[in-house]
Write a structure and sequence with these properties.
17 strands, binds NADP nicotinamide-adenine-dinucleotide phosphate, Rossmann fold, 33% helix, 15 helices, Dihydrodipicolinate Reductase, domain 2, 6-stranded parallel beta sheet, single chain, 26% strand, alpha/beta, 7-stranded mixed beta sheet
Length: 397
């Protein structure tokens, strides 16, 4: 690893929530000897909180500047981000990004470019904001045999679900509206509430924890939009709490990947993670279960992870993707028996090939079943594709 003591010169793309957070954080950590040389943004008519002389609208003002060593990519457009990041790596600059959609959907290409160029791409902030999960998977869990990585990786849905479990809750629509007013949900919340964001993060975790590169479309994914007070009351009667769970789990040589609602036991550490907080629980052979908890979004927490990556570049840090290169890697597959809660119509429920049914409840409030089914069969069922059903896994711990 090479180290440098000369000041790092940064070209920053994006000056929104995270870009401004980074600008602020860097000004409060002068010891790092890092300066933002130029900031590239998009909208020429937007007013900015700092002088116009900091900004450019031409990406090549940064990418072609030989004095800039590090590109920090914090924009909200994954296609433009790929062009920026790939060119920056090709011209020999190190890159830090927070863009989970970019990393999850273009990981194979980004790996190839890193291999070709030898340039370093770091993206700790892309997965659970301030929680140092990628670096831990790369370094600390390098040798300990992981069997499962699971967590609450989306703050928006966790905020909404927490509100839905309050006695005064009036349902999903008002919980979402409340999250939007407080800035925890975007005006178009689809990526969060339909669990696309959680699937992106699950993809990134799978690469670093188990050495598999998948497309996010391979994740068994379903969001929380169909949840009703009835579902919450059933969970609460069973001493459980509904969470949106990201989970990557080994089953022998197979690996299942999901981003699904879950009826977590109240005794489970994940059930107690409230509001916009994120948590990741790692289960490994020797260290047993460990829990990392922290803020998964927001300018300051996300910028802290970006800052950590920038600092790591000073000593030449790069991901080695050791698990991608190991001789035997698990095979992605979902033919694993799973216990699930399904609330829906008779027709929807009978589309699921349960092997065992533990509970079949019918009342004027609705019908739900808790039963055992192969995860891939559930995924292919009409109920899973139906926009009205509510489906959640029922974890044992
Ligand atoms: N917000 C969070 O809490 C959080 C947490 C983790 C990860 N992230 C990730 O961090 C990234 C930034 O998120 P954000 O919340 O800071 O977004 P944001 O507030 O919407 O800001 C986006 C910025 O990107 C700029 N931009 C968009 N397209 C551009 C282009 N083609 N060239 C140059 N600049 C462009 C915008 O320019 P204008 O200012 O001119 O409009 C704006 O400054 C995203 O990938 C997001 O997924 C965010």
């Amino acid at each position: 690893m090479s180290t440098t003591t000369s000041p790092q010169r940064i070209g920053l793309f994006g000056f929104g929530v995270v870009g401004q957070g980074l600008f602020d954080v860097l000004h409060r950590t002068p010891g790092l000897q890092t300066e933002i040389t130029r900031i590239c943004v998009k909208n020429r008519s937007k007013s900015r909180p700092i002088p116009a002389s900091h900004f450019t609208y031409e990406r090549n003002d940064i990418l072609d500047d030989p004095n800039i060593d590090v590109v920090v990519e914090l924009i909200d457009d994954a296609d433009a981000a790929f062009e920026i990041v790939s060119k920056a790596l090709r011209v020999g600059k190190s890159v830090v990004t927070a863009n989970k959609r970019l990393v999850a959907t273009r990981l194979r290409e980004l790996l190839d470019i890193q291999m070709e160029t030898g340039s370093s791409l770091l993206y700790e902030a892309s997965t659970c904001g301030s929680i140092p999960i990628i670096r831990n998977l790369e370094e600390y869990y390098d040798n300990d045999m992981l069997s499962r990585v699971e967590g609450i990786v989306n703050g928006t849905t966790n905020y909404i679900l927490t509100a839905l479990h309050e006695p005064a809750s009036t349902g999903y629509a008002s919980a979402l509206a409340q999250a939007q007013v407080l800035g925890f949900a975007e005006s178009d919340p689809t990526l969060d509430v339909e669990a696309f964001d959680a699937a992106f993060k699950t993809t990134i975790i799978a690469a670093h924890a188990f050495g598999v590169v998948v497309n996010p479309t391979q994740i068994v994914r379903r969001g929380i939009t169909t949840i009703t007070p009835f579902d919450v009351s059933i969970a609460q009667q069973q001493s459980r709490t509904i969470k949106l769970l990201s989970r990557v789990q080994l089953h022998g040589n197979g690996l299942s990947l999901l981003a699904l609602p879950a009826l977590s036991q109240n005794a489970s550490p994940l059930a107690g993670i409230r509001n916009e907080v994120n948590a990741v629980r790692l289960t490994a052979a020797f260290s047993d279960a460990q829990l990392l908890v922290g803020k998964g979004a927001g300018g300051g927490p996300t910028a802290s992870a970006v800052l950590s990556d920038i600092a790591a570049l000073r000593y030449g840090y790069r991901y080695e993707y050791k698990k991608l290169n190991q001789a035997s890697r698990p095979v992605v597959g979902h033919n694993v028996e799973t216990v699930v809660y399904v609330r829906g119509t008779n027709e929807q429920i009978t589309s699921i090939p349960f092997s065992v049914i533990d509970v079949d409840h019918r009342s004027s409030r609705g019908r739900y079943v808790i039963g055992h089914v192969q995860l891939d069969a559930l995924h292919k069922s009409a109920a899973f594709q139906d926009p009205e059903t509510f489906i959640a896994i029922v974890p044992e711990d």
